[in-house]
Structures are given as structure tokens and as C-alpha cells.
Design a protein that fits this description.
8 helices; single chain; 251 residues; 11-stranded mixed β-sheet
Amino acid sequence: MQKNYPYLYETHLHTCQGSKCAKSTGREMAKAAKEAGYAGIFVTDHNWYGNCAVDNTLPWEEFVTEFKKGYEDAKAWGDANDFAVFFGYEAGYGGPEFLIYGISPEWLLAHPEIKDASIEEQYRLVHEAGGMVIQAHPYREAWYISEVKVFPDWVDGVEGVNATHSNSKSASHNNPLYDRRAIAYATKHNLPMTAGSDIHTTELLGGGVAFSRKLSSGEDYCRAILSGEDYLLTNGEVWYDKKGNVKKEES
């Protein structure tokens, strides 16, 4: 942990209640994260057109009720154990994926039009709600990504550091070049950067965004990123400033 940025948040985390690819429940993920020294987590399960564990043909109200269970499971444990748990999700578009922050399950329930929104419409709807759109791992290459595409006009920022790409303990998608390309892209377009582990089990990698203060909400996180507040990025092994420059670890 960095001395002047003691509050580390995992911003990219999946639960088995919401994501087919995940192995652990929200409660298990929250407990493991607190034990690992995190100040909090964002539950960002794959949405209706991503690798979702919930049947996306369900009526919208039923879908949202099931989809939010991983978050609610984590939040219940967090509330009982003084640990911050915030809601988000990962939106899938047949390859490109986006991390959505600053909205709530209640907002999802009230906005069924988000389900079939284009990338441009998603950006508009999330912004109207006071939320934030971050393109996840934009330069990852994988069997489920037919083509690398970026959308500088329809995002608020870029996940510049994804621990599955560059942490030595990662067992999937491990190629540091993906992060280097994402950082270069964000720099070129002057887009804020975030970091997360893209974690699916309680075998945590330690990635995330670190602040000098505690975050009070998902909306607070959005304000911090978009307002230029200082923070650090990490893949769990290497620390970066918010511009993606490697930073020497403080003792």
C-alpha cells in the first residue's frame, strides 16, 4: 500500500450471482477484499449482453432483481463489517466492454431503454443519471473479441491498468502490452485512467485505484476521477500515477 494513498478500491469485480465466468459470491468477494486490505469494492457484473449469469430474456423487472443479487450479497456483508461496497456493471457490446459507475439498481429498473441502447445512447443515458462510462481493457485480444475498437467520444475514461494483463499471478489474458496500449491511447486523447483487477474469484490480484481519502459513494468515485483529484493506479505489483507513469512505492 502507498503511504499517502491508503484507501485502495477494487473497481472491476465479478460475482457468480451476476457473471457466468465468476466463481465466488458477492459475500465471499467482499470478505476476501477486506482481508486483503482494500477500503472497498465495486461489483461490476457482466450485463444482459455480456457473459451474464441471469437469463436476459426475463422481463426487465425480474432481470434486474436477479442481476443485482451479487451486489446485494456483497453489500449486506459490507454493511455488517464496515466495508464499502458500491454498485456498477460491465456492459457488453459483442467485444467492446464498458464499466458503468455512479448509477444504482433502482436507476436500472426505471430505465429499461438502457438494455438496447447504442454505445452513444448509453453514454448519454448514464451521463443524464450523473454516472460515468469507462472503456474496460480496450486493447485486450481474446476469442470473444472479434475486433479491437475504441470510442474516445463516448466514454469518460479508460481502464489503463487491468491486473489480469500485467500481474504475475494472473492466469488469463496475461499480456502487459494490452495495458501499455491502453495507457498510450488514454494519453493521446487526454482521457482519465482507472485501474482494476477484473477479478472473478477470491484469489485476488490487488489491482485498483487508491485515494488519500475514503470514498463515500459510487457518485463520489465518479466526481473524483472526472474532477482531476489525485489518485494512484495499480495492478497489485506496480504503482502508477493517474497519468500512467510508473511511480516508486513509498515506504
